[in-house]
Amino acid sequence: MLLNETADFDLARRVRQPQGAPIGEVFSFLSGLYFRGKLAYAGRFASPGDGVQVITTDRGLLSIDTPITADDLRSFSELAIDIHDRRYRESLERDLHELSADRVVFLGSIATRKYLGILFDILGERLYYPAAFVGLGDMSRGAMLLKAVRTGRELDYLPAIRLPSEVRRGHRHA
Known about the structure:
Blueprint: H1 10-16, E1 21-22, H2 23-31, H3 33-45, E2 53-55, E3 61-63, E4 67-68, H4 70-77, H5 86-98, E5 104-105, H6 113-123, E6 127-130, H7 138-151, E7 157-159, H8 165-168
Parallel strand pairs: 5-6
Antiparallel strand pairs: 1-4, 2-3, 6-7
């Protein structure tokens, strides 16, 4: 719908323009509740200067304010988030090595190797996740994040080093 050339809503029009629209806004539209929750939560609880970022398929980490266009979206869709794909892995690794923060809070799935394996390999003890995420699906995590924003209560974080190694490596528990 967003890439439909006849779509006449504001975000679709902006994405078709050379200046684009912020990736955070675009991904919120495309991804639904979970991403909206992540974006609202990060906006509410990240310290100034923390640099809230999004993992992309071919450009590593991008600030949520980075403008993207319809061509960028098409480019993203040509590549899967796959740890075996050099283009995804190398761009993400490059950007992770440049992070200087003492603590990086990951609001994504902690049971997905395509994210956590790479993040943990590079960030190690600096990588944290919300403790309440364990065992929850995307919709539940999104709702939890939005509730935390509404109530003004930041979630408790745990270091990813405390996750069992099979979880850090992306093996799900039943």
